[in-house]
Amino acid sequence: MSTFSGLSRATTALWAAQRGMDVTGQNIANVNTDGYSRQRVELTALNGAVTPAIHAVSDGIGSGVDSNNVIRIRDAFLEARGRLESANSARLTVTSSALASIESAFREPGDTGIQSMLADVWAGFSDVANTPLVSAARGQVIERLQTLAAGVRSTATSLDKQWEDTRDALQTLVHDVNTTATSIADLNQKIQLATNGGLPANELADERDKLVSSLAASVGATSTAGEDGTVVVSVGGSTLVNGNVATAVRLDGATGSAGATADKPRLVMLPGGSRLQVGGTAEGQLAVLGDLIPQYLGGLDTFAQSLAGTLNTQHAAGFDLTGAPGGPLLGTPTGAGTITAANLTVRVTSPDRIAAAGVGPDGVTPSANGNNADAMYELSLDPGGVDAAYREMIVGLGVVSGVAKRDLAVQTVVRDQVDAARESVSGVNLDEEMTNMMSFQHAYSAAARMVTAIDEALETLIRSTGIVGR
């Protein structure tokens, strides 16, 4: 038996305890660091000699402890689940926020909403029907029509501005995705070099995982472990990062809301231009640009065209104060072209030109009555008319927005639960770290005491053995 083998064991024990305290100190120092995963020293018993030999002096006990391996504590399943739920939350957040902005653009219910303006117009025609020869009542109808047209144009402008802002935000997101992908590729290369060189890269891996999580929320990215510590990042089945190579992403499609239905905005890979099936924030923004806002802009255009067509048709059936048939009440600024919510304009400017009168008792000659104005008021009571169609659209918007808010609330709870479960595994617990610190401290003291005992034994062996009888 060699006493020096015991000293070797004690040395590995000292090193293991020291390394354990170092790792514990690192964990405590990063307890509030975002994205940090707690680390742990993997202690492995070193085996003694297992090869038989004639002159072997091994005591067969073992060679101490190996503490070179420091691992990150992470649950791969919870990490993947957390990124998935984060992407879903980001998508629903965009959708809910966009619907809330669309509701604000319509300003319903409220005194400044189109429904209120439309009600004022119907009430104005009712006043004209009661007092067809009063110029003030006729002028009031024109003013209310102008207010209604301005309200429709304002709503269209708000929706168009929301579309442009969303596209600008998506363009910024694309730039951030490209930058993040490049950073992940750089970290892959550094981690690969460290792994091949036998050096620890836990902090670099934490930084990379944080960037991958950012991509998951942005575009629904997923990651799989590659070789030598690298990861492969994919989006919708397309590889975004492989090793130290990152693929760029570009925003294609319509640059204005007018062409968004025919040429929907989309993200494509460069080079090649293959379409990306994205998730997360990008998926929500693309849905807003290609479907949500164009749907309500189209609904508003339909409302403007229906309103103009209904009012113009009925107005043409009456006669103004000069006895002439009624002309178009609403149209485009030039009177030509397709009517849209963005160009809806009142064409009648003179109160005398309001065709409030119908024909007289003979059924042919115009009369100074308010029959046609009353008929125009009756349009508001049509269950299939423009008023009812507009209410149906607004009610539908409210229902969709309410569902989106509830979905987001439920998804937020799910995401928070998954994040809490993930944090319970990879997060730093100070109570646990304090326990580990005391454990390693006592282990270090015991190992140091062992070194002292072996030193005393060696001193006795060297200084005292063989001196009897001198």
From TrEMBL:
Keywords: Bacterial flagellum, Cell projection, Cilium, Flagellum, Secreted
Residues of the Flagellar basal body rod protein N-terminal domain: 10-36
UniProt KW Secreted keyword: yes
Gene Ontology MF terms: structural molecule activity
GO BP annotations listed: bacterial-type flagellum assembly
Domain Flagellar hook-associated protein FlgK helical: 100-329
Protein's recorded name: Flagellar hook-associated protein 1
Lineage: Bacteria, Bacillati, Actinomycetota, Actinomycetes, Geodermatophilales
